[in-house]
Amino acid sequence: MIFTSSRRLSNWVSALATVLAFGLLFGAIEALYGQLDHRKKLGTLAGFVLAFAFCISCFTDAKRADVFAATAAYAAVLVVYVGNNNNNNN
Q: How far apart are CA 85 and CA 80, in angstroms?
């Protein structure tokens, strides 16, 4: 069995959380950019919001209200992006 220091483990978890945060934001934008079907957009949006809420609840010690507020803010950013992207496609 391999043991490591708690500081090193903490650094790896922080790096993973940073990569996930980047991936969830820019991955959602990339996935939503070219979609024209509204149902697929809604499903993609819901999937990324659910993944964001899961990551926030697993990687932080946030309370339920804080997870809800952060998820609502993330969803609002994606909805604004989808709304602006729809205007460019029409």
A: 8
Please indicate, yes or no, if residue 6 is contained in any of the structural domains.
no
14 is a domain residue: no
Domain that holds residue 70: 23-89
Whole-structure pTM value: 0.79
**pLDDT tens, the chain, 90 aa long:** 677 788 888 888 889 888 988 999 899 999 988 888 889 999 999 999 999 999 889 888 899 999 999 999 999 999 998 888 765 554
- How many domains would you assign to the chain? 1
φ and ψ at residue 59, rounded to 5 degrees = -95, -5
Residue 48 lies in a domain: yes
Please say whether the beta carbons of 79 and 42 come within 8 A: no
Spatial separation of the C-alpha atoms in residues 41 and 31, rounded to whole Å: 9
